Amino acid sequence: MKPSELRDKSIVELNEELSELKEELFKLRFQHAVNQLENPLKLQSVKRDIARVKTILRERELKGIKE
């Protein structure tokens, strides 16, 4: 997921995306704990996607405060 794609989404869509990513991360962590995760790097990519979404949300929050 690219930051440019995220910037085109609304705040509501970003919050939905964030909740979906958190749910996916939970499932991946559980699979990793019981050794059923085929690609452990998927955990890393989901964490980074969560960070990207949170960054975009924070940017918009700060932009709203300045205006």
Describe what you observe in this structure.
- This protein has 67 residues and is mainly α.
- Helix content is 81%, strand content 0%.
- It has three helices and no strands.
- It has helices at residues 3-7, 11-33, 41-66.
- It is elongated.
- The termini are far apart.
- The mean pLDDT is 93.
SSE layout and pairing:
Layout: H1 3-7, H2 11-33, H3 41-66
Helix pairs in contact: 2-3
Q: Helix coverage percent of residues? A: over 70%
Radius of gyration: 14 Å
How many strands, what sense, and barrel or not for the largest sheet? Answer: none
* Name of the level-1 CATH class: Mainly Alpha
The assembly state of the depicted protein chains is single chain
**Discrete helix count:** 3
Q: What is the name of the CATH topology?
A: Helix Hairpins
Strand content: under 5%
Envelope shape = elongated
Uncertain runs: none
Average of the residue pLDDT scores: 93
What's the count of strands?
A: 0
CATH architecture heading: Orthogonal Bundle
Q: In terms of structural class, how would the helical and strand content be classed?
A: mainly alpha
Order of helices and strands: HHH
Query: Between the first and last Cα atoms, what is the distance in angstroms?
Result: 28 Å
How many domains? The number is 1
